[in-house]
User: Fold this.
Amino acid sequence: MQVLVLNSGSSSLKFQLFLMPEEQIICSGQIERIGFKDTIFKFKSSETSIEKITSITNHKEGLKIVADQLLNKKTGVIKSPNDISIVGHRVVHGGKHFSSTTVITEEVKNKIKALSSLAPLHNPPNLEGIEVAETIFPNSKQVAVFDTAFHQSIPKHAYKYAIPNEYLDKHNIRLYGFHGTSHKYVSEKTIDFLDKDHSKIITIHLGNGCSMTAIKDGKSIDHTLGFSPVSGLIMGTRSGDIDPAIIFHLAERHGLELKDINNMLQKKSGMLGLTGYSDLRDIQKAAENGDENCILALDMNAYRIKKYIGSYTAIMNGLDAIVFTAGIGENSAKIRQLVCTDMSYLGIDLDSEKNEIRSESIRAINKTNGKVQILVIPTNEELEIAKQALSLFQLN
Assistant:
């Protein structure tokens, strides 16, 4: 059967159409920089390769363009919407409601909508993608795979915040974790690569959204994103960790409304706030040309990652491998080099020549005698979503 997977990021939309269970890719593509004038649309099948710059305002518009391409009489890959049996959707925040892959119903959609305030850059476009897909593919089974599901194994002493107990007990305020589909996929690849019974791994997912997970024996035990996907690392437009007192200072001393502070932390901070750019490719280019703000932002970005590597190595009492994945993690040799510099005390020794090599397969970029494996593993959230969706379909 054919399974279409839709993966909506904060400013992107990735899609793949699989023949399952063979895991054969029929076509793939992505839309980058949604909401900007120079939106990039890419589509690839065995017979067609398309890349063009256009203007796509939002995820709903982007999904309609994807559907039109799939059904295109000359370059498309399906003849009818009924050719697709399952549409698998990445959904970022499942809160307390969803700990596993779920068939989408009206009740499920209502809960995803109710959680939008916790993931305002993601859950709304995730839900929009579901609703548009239901219209375009009315006879397909719609399935949601939640970013938060992989992190259900995080122990209570790690997910609970040091605030009065009632906020967890009555209001479910806790660390949930995100990017779980990606962290699960690359950690399983890493465990196969290490070929050992017990493992201590740190996975580093770097895209417009960024996160790290401490994974011990295949289980997530801590994660940088928390109650919402705004904490932890410095991201494209999100601040990452800040002193929470700053929020009250901005409200009381500068007269900012809470909604404006939230908007600033979610959409105007991170690399965008530091440099004026949210795309790391633009930042690296400007840094190479001597832009001091961009140089500093890259250093800050790497510094934050290094702090968490140290922290997670401590809680696992050791480290077998660190894994770079997602758009930046897989493609930015510069970020990997900055992160791995002066980390030899922890056994992290980067091979500079290996770091510069580009490949679409898993590769080790540490020195031959390095104690810790430094891996670059292309994530495939779409395949993981397809596998989970198919499994659910078969069970039902």
Remarks:
- The first strand starts at residue 2 and ends at 8.
